[in-house]
Structures are given as structure tokens and as C-alpha cells.
Amino acid sequence: MLLGKMILILCGLGVMAHAEYRMFNLKITNTQTKDYRLVDSTLDPLQYPGYYPVQKDEIVQYTATWRCFGNTGGGKPPCPNPRAPASDGSQQNQGPAPTANP
Questions:
Q1: How many alpha carbons lie under 13 Å from residue 56 in its C-beta half-sphere?
Q2: Between 20 and 18, where is the model more confident?
Q3: CB-count exposure of residue 81 (10 Å: 0-12, 13-18, 19+)
Q4: Per-residue CA distances from 74 to 19, 41, 77 (Å)
Q5: Quick check: is 3 in a domain?
Q6: Would you say 6 and 21 are in contact if contact means Cβ atoms under 8 Å apart?
Q7: Which residues lie below 8 Å from residue 70, measured CB to CB, with a gap of 6+?
Q8: Would 44 be classed as within a structural domain?
Q9: Which of 44, 48, 43, 28 lies closest to 94, judged by CA?
Q10: Which of 4, 45, 66, 84 has the fewest beta carbons closer than 10 A?
Q11: Domain total for the chain?
């Protein structure tokens, strides 16, 4: 009986799930004007154009990536880049960006 309880306890501890996800800092560059903008996203450079509009003359590259623990459920914001300097709350976008892109 004691062995059965110990097995149940050990199995119950092994079931605890840990969520994690990867963040990317994407640099979206206009090849004609050389203007760019920086975007933090859970989408990698190949996935991003499938969900957000990117102009024909823009390329998407990642400049940094990091792992976040937990999940983004309930409207929680994604975790910040641990290597980035402390943010003052300003936008990270650099240069002019087309209004159609997020």
C-alpha cells in the first residue's frame, strides 16, 4: 500500500508541464531605401511574412533570439530580451515604416 502511494506521488510530480517559447528580434529592411524597423515577435523570419504584410522590397532577418518560460495566455506580454538595455517604454521602430505594416 505504501509503495502504491509513493508511485502515485512520483508519477504526479512527473506530470507537471513547463511551457516555453522562443522570441525573435526581427529587422525588417527596405532594400531600396535602406530604412528598417525592429520588431519583437514569437514568429521567426520565415513565418513573419505569412502573418503580417511585408512589402516586396523588404527583407526580414533576425538580430537576436531568446527563450522565454511560461506562456502568453491571458494577454500576458512576451518576456523582454535579457541582453537588451533597459527599455524606457519608447518604440523600438527605426526609420520610417509603411503604415500598412505593424
A1: 0
A2: 20
A3: middle
A4: 14, 17, 9
A5: no
A6: no
A7: 19, 20, 76, 79
A8: yes
A9: 28
A10: 4
A11: 1
Domain annotation covers residue 58? yes
Report the run of H or E that residue 4 belongs to, with start and end.
helix 2-14
DSSP assignments along 33-93, one per residue: T--EEEEEESS-TTTHHHHS---TTEEEEEEEEEEEES--GGGPPPPPPTTSPPP-S----
Whole-number pLDDT of residue 24 = 96
Eight-class DSSP state of 29: E
Domain membership of residue 85 (yes or no) is no
Rounded distance, CA 24 to CA 27, Å? 10
Q: pLDDT (tens digit, 9 = 90+) per residue, 33-46?
A: 999 999 999 999 99
Give the torsion sign (CA, 94, 79, 22, 43). Answer: negative
Report the length, in residues, of the chain. Answer: 102
Q: Give CA angle at 94 (58, 102), nearest 5°.
A: 60
